[in-house]
């Protein structure tokens, strides 16, 4: 007899329990810390324009990797020229009492333009028992991993990582609060220059995989280590999100990317998602050369019910994503390589194979994967020429697309 | 001095060595994590499984339910058994079940017509003219409510009381006064004594109206129709539908014809539930489709105004349940009163956005202007070719195995 259960053991999240051990080796000595978390005021603009010779789904077709429920803003880039991203970022330090940061962002492609206030949040720092505490609140991105704060104008590649697209709806922005302790790690335990940040966040749930009002909570820990020309960092995090009747609105709200309403069937997800992540990078500078490598693993434990107007199914699915990135840099030039792969073990109950197939959740042993290579040339202090090749197999098995692109990243400090 | 200098150099060297060791120890933790992830919980392997319980499998077997059909919701108070199904089949076709022994359920529900009867409105056993069209019985196990217009009949057992017991109008005429006579017929029949004993072994007191209703409901629940050309197409045989039918399918699900809003899902109706339906999500839809507009005040013919007859709320005038379209080709004439003869006329009715009954005729008025008409029925312009295509698609829902299946045939005619 199969017993329906709403709980699932989390294999990899037990890693998070190592963190208290690490935190023991920290020092509360303020003297060793950076004087303040406050930054100087700034106002800057960033933009990315890219030409692509191909796209990973045909116009009018929906991008849904077989076996995965996706949503948010995960729409792949299109053939031709597009303004991938433009951002106006501002930061105001108010007398070192608090700060206000904001980000206005937009994109333009296929004749459609959109601008939104992506972030607006307030922050401050304080000390409790000589421990530095950072508090932030507002509409902001999560701090669990930078991967969820993807922007084509600021990141290495012009296409968002598969893990961010599939597991989080591209980039994470939500209204919430964050509290974190920040400090140095006592050199007695770890040589060089090491610091940590450990905190938690509570969000309203506006970002995939949650739904508004249902909420997301997360806990994270970051560790940085620097010794001479070697730098390394590690991040461990967990996030729990709840959703109620979450629909995939990517192609039905605003610009529909040529997808007719007729082909966007409505399926709703109600349930919870437990995400876990581990990130690790290391880089080493030797004279004018720098080499860098990073690894990221994310897992989503999906547990809930999928329903259409009439039928439904219970789903339990651990979904794993892996990303390996490396680059070598010499002065203005750098060459980047990235490999990404995802897997899911979808288990359904109380349903039919036809419903699962119609909902796009029969993955048939499919693992979406992508290889990306990029050559970046910072030919001007404000400009980077970005040339990329991407081999993508993320939509359906054997549907392999090669995309070559050429683009410019621009950034300029207005203040 | 030299000694102190050398000592400092040695000390620095020792510090450097310690720092390098610390750096290595810093790397050790993520390296171990990385390795453990690879070795233990991080298989890059996708799969899709659909699990079912033994009870579900038994029920599927009992209903001979094809894999693509969901399990119907069987009420706990009347579990399905082969014995009850057998008894129900005998009762369904037995005229002993009417007070004057002239009619059975099968008198108005012919298997060759997918258990409709081919006439606008039937005549009861005592000659009473009924006002509603006999509905087909294909897949009624998936209905959210029963009869054309009653929002309190959630189970077949509720509905079955009406044709058997009602006295205005009389159908089978088993009124309180006739009940004992009818039950005695079964109790005095040796064959039925065995059938009742087998179906209800825990209560061997002979026939009762509840046992009759429970058995009939069990038999009718087995009337699953799922082997039409459409089903074959759904299961992957792309040649099962003609090009014209495929065009019709597309129009059916398009925003022009909008048929799918009311006739969606595996059973082609939003009035749907199955064993896995979420209680809060089950819809109990009733629509006014603009068939009449008597006196231009939204009324339907006085003999039958739909939900209004139960609620007395004018907004409920003309509200009827959208039936399943399974085997719709065989269940003409159409609508709750059988007032439209062909499928083509039905599509034309919706294309016009309501029916015009000219002045001078009974029930004159333009249904297009019925103030209580569903907002989904706005009318549209369609070519002859498009209407033909939609009709052709509807004809693809005909299941010839269903109307020839011996499981549903009259057992009294078997040798």
Explain what you see.
The complex is a heterodimer of chains A (415) and B (415). Helix content of chain A is 5%, strand content 56%. By secondary structure, chain A is mainly β. Chain A has one domain (41-413): Porin (Beta Barrel). Residues 1-24, 28-33 and 259-264 of chain A have low confidence and may be disordered. Chain B is mainly alpha-helical and 415 residues long. Chain B has two domains: 54-225, Cytochrome Bc1 Complex, Chain D, domain 2 (Orthogonal Bundle), CATH 1.10.760.10; 229-402, Cytochrome c-like domain (Cytochrome Bc1 Complex, Chain D, domain 2), CATH 1.10.760.10. Chain B has 13 helices and three strands. Chain B is globular, with a radius of gyration of 31 Å. The model of chain B is unreliable at 1-24 (pLDDT under 50). Strand 14 of chain A pairs parallel with strand 1 (47-51) of chain B, so a sheet runs across the interface.
Overall average pLDDT of chain B:
89
Main beta-sheet annotation of chain A: 16 strands, antiparallel, barrel
Q: In percent, how much strand structure appears in the residues of chain A?
A: over 45%
CATH superfamily membership of the largest domain in chain B: Cytochrome c-like domain
Question: Total number of β-strand segments of chain B?
Answer: 3
CATH architecture of chain A: Beta Barrel
Shape of chain B: globular
Q: How do the helices and strands line up, and which of them pair or pack?
A:
The complex is a heterodimer of chains A (415) and B (415).
Chain A: H1 19-24, E1 26-27, E2 42-52, E3 80-94, E4 98-109, E5 112-128, E6 131-141, H2 162-168, E7 173-185, E8 193-203, E9 216-227, E10 230-247, E11 268-286, E12 289-307, E13 312-330, E14 333-349, H3 353-358, E15 369-380, E16 383-393, E17 401-413
Antiparallel strand pairs in A: 1-7, 2-3, 2-17, 3-4, 4-5, 5-6, 6-7, 7-8, 8-9, 9-10, 10-11, 11-12, 12-13, 13-14, 14-15, 15-16, 16-17
Chain B: H1 2-39, E1 47-51, H2 54-63, H3 82-92, H4 156-165, H5 176-187, H6 190-199, H7 209-221, H8 229-234, H9 243-252, H10 308-311, H11 343-352, E2 356-357, E3 365-366, H12 384-395, H13 400-404
Helix pairs in contact in B: 3-6, 3-7, 4-7, 9-12, 11-12
């Amino acid at each position: 007899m199969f017993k329906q259960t709403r709980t699932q053991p989390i294999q990899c999240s037990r890693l998070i329990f190592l963190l208290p051990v690490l935190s023991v080796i920290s020092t509360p000595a303020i003297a060793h810390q950076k004087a303040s978390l406050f930054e100087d005021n700034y106002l800057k603009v960033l933009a990315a324009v890219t030409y692509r010779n191909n796209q990973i789904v045909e116009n009018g077709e929906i991008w849904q990797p077989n076996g995965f429920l996706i949503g948010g803003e995960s729409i792949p880039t299109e053939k031709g020229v597009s303004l991938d991203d433009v951002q106006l970022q501002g930061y105001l330090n108010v007398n070192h009492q608090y700060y206000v940061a904001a980000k206005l962002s937009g994109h333009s492609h296929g004749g459609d333009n959109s601008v939104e206030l992506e972030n607006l949040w307030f922050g401050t720092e304080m000390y409790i028992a000589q421990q530095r505490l950072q508090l932030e609140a507002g509409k902001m991105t999560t701090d669990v991993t930078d991967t969820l704060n993807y922007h084509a104008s600021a990141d290495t590649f012009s296409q968002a990582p598969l893990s961010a697209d599939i597991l989080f709806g591209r980039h994470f922005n939500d209204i919430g609060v964050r509290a974190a302790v920040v400090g140095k790690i006592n050199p007695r335990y770890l040589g060089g220059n090491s610091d940590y940040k450990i905190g938690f966040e509570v969000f309203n749930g506006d970002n995939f995989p949650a739904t508004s009002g249902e909420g997301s909570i997360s806990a994270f820990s970051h560790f940085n280590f620097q010794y001479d020309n070697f730098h390394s960092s590690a991040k461990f995090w967990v996030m729990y999100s709840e959703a109620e009747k979450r629909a995939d609105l990517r192609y039905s709200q605003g610009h529909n990317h040529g997808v007719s309403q007729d082909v966007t069937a409505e399926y709703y997800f109600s349930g919870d998602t437990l995400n876990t992540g581990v990130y690790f990078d290391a880089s080493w500078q030797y004279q004018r050369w720098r080499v860098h490598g990073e690894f990221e693993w994310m897992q989503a434990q999906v547990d809930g019910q999928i329903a259409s107007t009439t039928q439904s199914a219970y789903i339990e699915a651990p979904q794993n994503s892996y990303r390996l990135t490396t680059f070598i840099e010499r002065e203005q030039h750098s060459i980047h390589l990235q490999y990404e792969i995802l897997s899911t073990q979808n288990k359904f109950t109380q349903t039919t194979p036809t419903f699962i197939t119609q909902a796009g959740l029969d993955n048939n042993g499919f693992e979406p994967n992508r290889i990306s290579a990029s050559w970046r040339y910072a030919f001007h202090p404000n400009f980077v020429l970005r040339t990329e090749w991407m081999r993508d197999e993320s939509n359906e098995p054997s549907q392999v697309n090669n995309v070559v692109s050429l683009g410019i990243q621009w950034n300029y400090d207005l203040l | 001095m030299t000694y102190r200098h050398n000592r400092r150099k040695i000390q620095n060297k020792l510090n450097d060595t310690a720092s390098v060791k610390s750096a290595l120890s810093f790397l050790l933790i993520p390296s171990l994590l990385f390795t453990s992830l690879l070795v233990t919980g991080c298989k890059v392997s996708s799969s899709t499984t659909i699990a079912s319980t033994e009870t579900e499998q038994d029920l599927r077997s009992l209903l001979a339910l094809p894999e693509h059909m969901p399990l119907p919701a069987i009420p706990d108070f009347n579990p399905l058994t082969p014995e009850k199904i057998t008894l129900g089949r005998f009762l369904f076709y037995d005229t002993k079940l009417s007070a004057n022994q002239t009619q059975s359920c099968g008198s108005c529900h012919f298997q060759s017509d997918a258990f409709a009867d081919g006439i606008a409105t039937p005549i009861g056993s005592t000659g009473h003219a009924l006002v509603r069209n006999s509905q087909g019985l294909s897949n009624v196990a998936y209905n959210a409510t029963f009869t054309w217009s009653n929002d309190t009949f959630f189970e077949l057992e509720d509905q079955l009381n009406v044709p058997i017991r009602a006295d205005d109008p009389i159908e089978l005429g088993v009124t309180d006064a006739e009940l004992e006579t009818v039950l005695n017929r079964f109790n005095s029949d040796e064959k039925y004594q065995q059938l009742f004993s087998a179906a209800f072994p825990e209560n061997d007191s002979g026939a009762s109206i509840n046992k009759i209703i429970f058995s009939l409901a069990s038999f009718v629940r087995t009337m699953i129709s799922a082997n039409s050309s459409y089903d074959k197409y759904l299961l992957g045989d792309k040649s099962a539908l003609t090009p014209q039918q495929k065009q019709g399918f597309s129009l059916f699900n398009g925003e022009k014809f909008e048929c799918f809003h009311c006739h969606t899902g595996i059973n082609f109706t939003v009035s749907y539930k199955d064993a896995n339906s979420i209680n809060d999500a089950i819809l109990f839809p009733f629509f006014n489709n603009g068939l009449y507009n008597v006196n231009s005040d939204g009324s339907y013919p006085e003999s039958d105004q739909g939900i209004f007859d139960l609620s007395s709320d004018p907004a409920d005038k003309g509200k009827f349940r959208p039936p399943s379209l399974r085997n719709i080709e065989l269940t003409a004439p159409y609508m709750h009163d059988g007032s439209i003869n062909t499928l083509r006329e039905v599509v034309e009715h919706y294309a016009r956005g309501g029916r015009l009954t000219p002045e001078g005729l009974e029930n004159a008025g333009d249904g297009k202007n019925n103030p209580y008409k569903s907002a989904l029925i706005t009318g549209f312009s369609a070519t002859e070719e498009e209407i033909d295509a939609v009709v052709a698609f509807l004809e693809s829902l005909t299941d010839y195995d269903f109307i020839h299946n011996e499981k549903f045939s009259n057992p009294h005619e078997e040798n």
